[in-house]
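subagent[fold] <- orchestrator: predict structure for attached chain, return tokens only, no commentary.
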Amino acid sequence: MAVSPARAFAYDILIRVERDGSYASELLNAPRMDGLSREDRALTYELVMSTLRWQSELDARLAQYSSQKISRLDGEVRVALRLAACQLSRLERIPAHAAVHESVELVKQSGKRSAVPFANAVLRKLAANAKSAVADSGAESAAGLAAEFAHPEWMTARWIDMYGYSAARSVCAANQHAPGASLRLCTADAEEELREAGIQIAPGALLTGARRLLSGDLAHSIPFRDHHVAVQDEASQLVAALVGKGARILDCCAAPGGKTAAIAARNPGAQITAVELHEHRAKVLKERVPAMNVKVVIGNVTAIEFAEQFDCVLADVPCSGTGTLAGNPEIKWRVKAEDLAGLKDLQVSIFKAGAKALAPGGRLVYSTCSLEMEEGEGVVEQVLRGVEGLSVIPCESVLEELKSTGELAWAEPKTLVRGDFLRTLPGIHPCDGFFAAVLQRGKD
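subagent[fold] -> orchestrator:
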């Protein structure tokens, strides 16, 4: 029996996410996807993202009818079962027989023929009970949120402690839906070009210069292909705006280049140095920031001795990414609580390197797309204890400045901050979860 293109592509992507640590969003936007029809691309996206978003629930459903622990199955078998379970329990329009038969065929085609009878038996039992409820682990608790919204319990427990139950629930609920695409216009004519291409857009929610995608095939449009418009979360665009304006600007961890490009657009006369550790990511960065005023440097920012100091520095550091789970659901199952300490050490070292390169009177923005306080407030506190001459500028005052100049569209800047820092939460704000601190070096 042939497997439909959408299921075959979805299975291949899910295998690569699990086996190789790849990111689903990158694979779903790879050139090979262009060979699919628009309908098959949409179904592939839905199959992949729904399977990853609801993975723990799907495993719990499968475990009810499996004689073996799901975690101990061969990866090829486990992914095929999850893919079928997702179609049976989460996607109403897909016939049960198609979900079962094609997933069994995927097991067969993967070379796991001995597992075919097992997979067939499990999926037939699941198909007969696909809409049965999974046991609730407790109301208004970390376990309850973890079960209801398919998140690791350690994660939901932390969010309840940090933000309260209501906010944590809003975050978890938002993570289970596809985020609306936010756009950054890269040229003066981009908005008109989008309309001519049949792309419907609306004003941004946070920034007056941002746009929201309403409908249309953006990925295959000429404005997108020619880099006249970029997909960039509004919180990410806001972080770039916090950097401010200067003659010499440093971006410490620049790839893939969204914030670098936004900074360059706001500072057309500046000399911008964009540092990236990995050569293959630097190549992507160069493609996204063709502006003449951006110099891409390949290297470790913590080991580079700059010949000059910078008026503005952005340290947008590698992090757990827990603020981006709506678009990167695999992170839920990949990141562990014990990983945060190692990430914090790296973040502190990059932050300090940025501070070292900052000129007297200059501004430094430290940011992450993480909801975890260790990667946000904790890093800022540690750096301030070890670096002299830095002081925190309350983010609310910087946001008020952006509002006074007409750049910030959000009505109440104070609702975007927590203490002195920017803190956006999915489900509470119309964007990913970001943390940002704005600091200034004292003048000599």
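orchestrator: received. Logging for downstream: The chain has a mean pLDDT of 95. Residues 234-441 form a domain with the Rossmann fold fold (CATH 3.40.50.150).
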